[in-house]
Amino acid sequence: MENIKLQQLQEAILAGNVPQIVLATISAALDMRSSDIHIEPKRETTQIRYRIDGVLRRVVEYPLNMHPAVVSRIKIMSNLKIDEQRIPQDGRTTVTTKDNREMDLRVSSFPTVNGEKVVMRIQDKSRKIPTLEELGLEGLNMAYIKKSLDLPNGIILTTGPTGSGKTTTLYSCLSVLNTPDVNILTIEDPVEIQMNGLNQSQVHPDISYTFASGLRTALRQDPDIIMVGEIRDRETMDVAIESSLTGHLVFSTIHTNSAVETLTRIANMGVPAYLMASTINLIIAQRLVRKICTNCRVEDQTSPELLARVKRSLEYLAPAEAANYEPELLRSPKFYIGKGCEVCGNTGYFGRLGVYEIMMMNNHLRRLILEQGQSLDIEQEAVKSGMVTLEQAGILKALKGETSLDEVYSIAREVEWDENSEPKKEAVSAPEGAAAAPAPETPAMAPALEASAAEVQPAEPAPVTTPVLETPQVPAPAVTPEMGLPAAVPNELAALQLETPPQL
Length: 504
Known about the structure:
Layout: H1 2-15, H2 18-31, E1 34-41, E2 45-52, E3 55-63, H3 67-77, E4 89-96, E5 102-112, E6 115-124, H4 139-149, E7 154-159, H5 166-177, E8 184-188, E9 199-202, H6 211-218, E10 225-228, H7 234-245, E11 249-254, H8 259-268, H9 273-279, E12 280-292, E13 297-299, H10 304-315, H11 319-322, H12 327-331, E14 336-338, E15 349-360, H13 363-370, H14 375-384, H15 390-399, H16 405-411, H17 446-455
Parallel strand pairs: 7-11, 7-12, 8-9, 8-10, 10-11
Antiparallel strand pairs: 1-2, 1-6, 2-3, 4-5, 5-6, 12-15, 13-14
Helix pairs in contact: 1-2, 2-3, 6-7, 8-14, 9-13, 13-14, 15-16
């Protein structure tokens, strides 16, 4: 099918049929599971590239003299000014596939020396929300999320770069909580997937309907659960904290590289440490890695240096998580790669999966935050309490043959383990013949959340000279709803006029 669609695109180029070129470009991208279409003018030709499984792949070129007509056609579809080529423009259009799937295309034009570059982001508005299991969550990570979803109030944050699946994770969490007896409101930019049972709203900053103002208004809608698309500033963070303190469960995203760096980012916004410690329940740092093609998967020859790094990381794996794996597998790990075939387009990969680092707050972590502890101390305390780092989570996926070590170390840094603490060798050096605990499809490990901290003796942290959580020196009083928070911004929803996206 992929070759047929590309052939149709090439035939449209040869015929010089501009409308057909645009439609064939979109159609081929959908069939090839592309998330973005790049139409890029060069010195003599225009190239079309698709982002497939997070990696750009060039698919076709056509003569540069056809480029202005192609761009104009896309601008007409997305309601952009065709006579304006000097400044960037943003638009949107909707297309419907032959199987009646509705696709939302976010269009961005960008002027270059060779002409306007166009990028189209594809969003399948009718796609199914994956379950937590389908996201790849398991073991302690699954237990942490399920326990946090049972809490009546607090803040749950997902963090990671753009395109790492943060919003999808939030949708999956909300689908668990989406029952007739709760009122769930979302404030998004844009609304990526429409879900039955949710009251979803899209922000419009041009008329002063922002995340912060939308969140304040949501508090007057008798909500039980609120999701705000992104926390970008102190004002939105303050309202999220206020919502949590008044008995609501709040979900949001933020852009940081790890779970502990999220605390640093919030501290840099000027949020007092006692408010962070009392309201944040869970931080999910995540990345997407490519899955090895099952049709061409073979065992990889891992270098001794990389293998030593892997084993060191596994030495610090939480015992409750290590119990899901055979001891021999952790002592003598084997890894895999895809050698390339027709199924995966000779890339060795097909599809993507999530890798997660989940930090659930406990009394030890809250105390460190209140004391404005350094990021390394907080991270190592979280690991002692059972947190599986991004590196460890990726290695465990690679042990199962789901991804490669190259993919793992493209998204995960090596953790600086505390040299003064004893590695938990019992987690990887069980006696010969010892049977590992089975790994159920949906692990029920809530008791391990409390046990994991007791199983590991705390040790003196390694000396570190760089302070990270530089919050104002504020005493830590008892947290009550009467705490002074910034005054609410004026409600400007009365002026809100939602616009309907252009239709194809």
